[in-house]
Design goal:
The complex is a heterodimer of chains A (312) and B (240).
Chain A (H helix, E strand, L loop, with lengths): L4 H12 L7 H8 L6 E2 L25 E8 L2 E8 L10 H17 L4 E5 L9 H20 L4 E5 L8 H8 L2 E4 L10 H8 L9 H8 L1 H7 L4 E2 L4 H14 L5 H18 L5 H7 L13 H11 L8
Parallel strand pairs in A: 3-4, 4-5, 5-6, 6-7
Antiparallel strand pairs in A: 1-2, 2-3
Helix pairs in contact in A: 1-2, 3-4, 4-5, 7-8
Chain B lengths: L2 H8 L4 E6 L2 E7 L5 E13 L1 H17 L4 E10 L3 H5 L2 H17 L4 E5 L2 E2 L1 H6 L6 E4 L4 E2 L4 H8 L3 H10 L7 H7 L4 E2 L6 H10 L8 H7 L6 H14 L2
Parallel strand pairs in B: 3-4, 4-5, 5-7, 6-8, 7-9
Antiparallel strand pairs in B: 1-2, 2-3
Helix pairs in contact in B: 2-4
The chains are: A alpha/beta (312), B alpha/beta (240).
Amino acid sequence: MTASLDDVARAQRARRTSFNEASARTRLELMLDAGSLVEFIGPEQREVSPHLRIFDLPEQFDDGIVVGHARLEGSPVFVAAQEGRFMGGAFGEVHGAKLTGLLRAAREIGSIPVLILFDTGGVRLQEANAGELAIAEIMRAVMEARTAGAKVIGLIGGRSGCYGGGGLIAGCCSALAVSEPGRIAVSGPEVIETNRGVEEFDSRDRALVWRTMGGKHRRLLGAADVFADDTVQDFREAALELIGLVGAFGPDRLKAEHERLAGRLRRFGTCKDAVDIWTAEGVADAETVPDLPADRFIALADRIGRTSRDAR
Amino acid sequence: MTLDEILVSLFPDGHEVRKDDGVVAGTATLRSGGRMLVIGVADRTALGVNEAIRLSEHVLESIDRGSGPILVLVDSDSQRMSKRDELLGLNEFLAHLAKVLIHADMNGRPTIGLLYGHSAAGALLATGLATRVLVGLPGAEPAVMDLPSMARVTKLSMEALEEKAKSTPVFAPGLSNLEQMGAVHMIWNDAAPLASQLEALLADMPAAHDRRDALGKQRGGRPKAADISERVRDLALQVR
């Protein structure tokens, strides 16, 4: 296929743009085929959260998420991108319902993949009950869409990471791509420290946070399938690769996932730190992993890292 | 009600449900004569990687060899908050449990959650909220987040939060709030035998189709979710 001039310009910008630092809208603009995004219920419709005003908090016209239809290398995709700079990308009633609706359409069509650009701290506390339930509905909708044949790909590299219920939704996806700053966890560092004490987890120890929850560890552990460098173009290429790789969902996948996770507990269940896990995996000089540049890390991960392919 | 009292009231014809380190598992006989898989979390136990893998194993085994509906009993803490659990990928273990339950429900093994104690956050997502019908018992105390923690995050006083909680079910802990959201389908009467209430539910199970957003709209707890998801779905179907 001959790329249009617009797409050449897009790719040039996408290579120079940090995924981590970009807004949700910039990520989509530069990741998808030039000019192809059609947004559903965009900010012009002002469908804001009905709950934030109770707390005198500012609303955002898109409630912190963009959902729509677009093209990737000419093929149709559904996309959802969370804006981590609004309320930490947290799931509220409207924010979550947009993603639920998109996934329900993907289930009915079956053949169009869904890309979810996660950037979230989890449930939006000011509407905690609605947000928690939205996440439950999304998890159900992801599994129904996958059962109907749709591929659901998670891309994780935003500033808010992918925490709380966002981590559970990510665990339901067909495949994940993650960059170094893309952290994936349920309880955030501060939450663990607040509940269990600084001896359990020192949230100010940033190196500890990165190696416990960061993209490199998740890739080596097999929790994510592809490690992307922190550019929008790298995430585009990762999305294309994963759409090509992912097979159909079926009960065999759940059994394979069970074996994969049970095996992880047997192998690494007594490890005290990520460095111990990497060493047990056969990484020489495991303590240098956090300093490896992306290309050298990807070579290492491709050589020894596990994947969750066909097992999630 | 205690776990033992609940099991006796649910299954007067007998059960082989055991509790081991807070993890509940076994089978029980229904009034109809059929069998039911029972799993759960008891004693306000935190749901970590070890508990989640054991629970999902019971469900997977039952998918292979068993039949009948599945009951998920819930009296848990939140997810286990620890370095070890996060290091090992707790999000995958909790998602796995939810996926196994959802898969079972979609494939002829209808799931019912019974919230009889506490639960919160990731533990509730992986158990009760991953079932088709979540039932509450009076006295159950679900909380996505407790008010003191919320006061810290929102920088509001406890008094201010309690005042706000009176006018909206959207953030405060409690069974009736989750019922208004559409998360809890119904609350059973703990003064009447649970067996007949279970039989009535099984005889009239709603379709597997997730309609919690419609329930939340009917009950006034979530004014926008059902309409927004429906509108996005319709718009997305038009682009074909």
